[in-house]
Regulatory protein LacI
Amino acid sequence: MKPTVHDIANIAGVSLATVDRVLNGRPGVRLVTRGKVEEAIASLGYVRDLAAANLAKSRTYSFVFILPANDNSFMIGLTEEVRGAVARSSFERTDIRIVDVPPFDPDALVAALEAALAEKPAGVAFVAIDAPEVRAAAERLRQAGIPMVTLVSDLPDSSRDHYAGIDNIAAGRTAGSLMGRFLSGPFLGERGATVAVLAGSMLVRDHRERLEGFSTVIAQAYPNVHILPVLEGRDDPVLAETMIADALRRNADIAGIYSLGAGNRGLIRALQKARGPRRPLVIAHELTASTRVALADGIIDAVLNQDAGHEVRSAIRVLKAKADGLPVLAAQERIRIDIFLKDNLP
Amino acid sequence: MKPTVHDIANIAGVSLATVDRVLNGRPGVRLVTRGKVEEAIASLGYVRDLAAANLAKSRTYSFVFILPANDNSFMIGLTEEVRGAVARSSFERTDIRIVDVPPFDPDALVAALEAALAEKPAGVAFVAIDAPEVRAAAERLRQAGIPMVTLVSDLPDSSRDHYAGIDNIAAGRTAGSLMGRFLSGPFLGERGATVAVLAGSMLVRDHRERLEGFSTVIAQAYPNVHILPVLEGRDDPVLAETMIADALRRNADIAGIYSLGAGNRGLIRALQKARGPRRPLVIAHELTASTRVALADGIIDAVLNQDAGHEVRSAIRVLKAKADGLPVLAAQERIRIDIFLKDNLP
DNA sequence: CTGTTAGCGCCTTCAA
DNA sequence: TTGAAGGCGCTAACAG
């Protein structure tokens, strides 16, 4: 039989209340008494029953999720996943509030973090923007003892407790390897091949990191692949379509395209229209309705993906664990870089 | 405030005990009374608090995991993951018993299933062998109302409630696509390329399915790739090494190797020794200590993997849900076909 | 400083 | 067929 607070009380010769005070580190216990109780706890190998504790406290974990009101499929999907968690909240003892903020706006994010701080939730998850003022706001939350998880985009060297997202440098490297190997056959002649890169903005960290990883691998392992200057499509389908169409027109020998941001609908449209003699090899990020179809149709060759559902569930698990001072299972919380070919689509 | 059994009792004008009887479908309630209670439940939108219920029952979920005592790294890792779950069992209200059975032995598996049935656990997970007597034993468990999950290897068209493992046909297809694309460049000349396949045994379903997927894609999309007769290494490192060494010696023009089973240590040793003019392209299954090193060293080009930790955690979650008659989150329980290049190693 | 007591939401005797 | 009362393991007033 697992030991309970009663057993501790008996062995230590104190009352339940005192045991509880010690267990929860509350003041008002003499040092000697505390010692006796802690001894009993250790000797019994006691572990508290969290479910019972939460029942007694009628506790619900109140979390705030701050999400950019971006209208690309990935962010919409992410928000959808959080909504799903909200729907399940009654079963999971959570109370999740979703806060929308304008995208790419550090000040708005800071304001949202401040607002969250004011209501003292049990935890906060947010899609970070890598800016000093955001880092400062995060530090204030930490001072207040509020667990924090960054989602999708990290805030390194900050006081966040955990990052629920992929390693974007590794993702870029993976894209680079795939590009290099896939190109090797049909495209790479004596004079090498040319590759275009479509990003959202070089201001956001994930995009910079993906490009960095990609460029590194290409330079090291595929020196005869030439990368054109980055196109910044601001994750906007219309802009992306124009830029890709232009690039294909000006540069007839583009053999590959790496789309490392969102807004792939525009890219796909441009590719569908510009049917040249030989279609370029395309690697894109995020499995959405449009990239899925493009992959199945052979317009896109590979999709790198981060599982938004996993990220959201992981963020919640981690916030709960941090709120309770419990350890997390690192292996369970690692967000994979999924590689999808048309053959392993879920 | 969430409605409780008290609210139901008040509205229906009955006692808590009666409410409980209705909630748990126990006999001893007049039809009219039952009707009143059910009406109150519906009108309140009541959902029971599982944690409180389990506390009151001091319930622990007793599960049996039947695992083949295979000595390859993957099975050892799988067992390790179950051990991890056993270690966490006090926190998760589970009581997991691990039963080892000789590998590839349907009768032993049937005996283990019978033994499990005898002790009436809350659920059973097992690595299936695709045989009629196993299917029959599974049916007996289902008759007894014991939830069942197949792990890693499925038992299709049977009475198992869930399969925690990957789609092996899709895995084979994925390997085929990668092989075809990777080969296209450096190897595929006018006269095509030759590929060897190393399997454990064509008697186990996963291996058959992987080969099927692989062959299909190669035949359809890469007709000038020629697949040699399958080598069955029985997942034995020593045997595998001999077979691969032999094959490389006899067939100097082997351009690629697909290792779809376990026992990759032997494969790797053979490759290290047989340094020909140009090393073959290698795709293997399961990320283990040895395949990881081989991938990093460039001896293996890609590893397809199933996350054993995820499979075990998923099996437990599903068994719990089935035991409680609750739905499962399909997206969370889907086991991915992970593709690892040296760039996205965890 | 310490103990008593009454719950949290649900289940389970036992008695009526 | 129904209800009253006690308890699961833990917490939180409120007294001493």
About this structure: Chain A is about 50% helix and 15% strand. Residues 14-18, 21, 27-30, 33, 52, 54-59 of chain A lie near DNA strand C (CB under 10 Å from a C1'). The interface with chain B takes residues 2, 47, 49-52, 54-55, 90-91, 93, 167, 170-171, 173-174, 176-178, 181-186, 188, 213, 217, 309-310, 313, 331-332, 334, 336-339, 341-344, 346 of chain A (CB under 8 Å). Chain A has a mean pLDDT of 94.
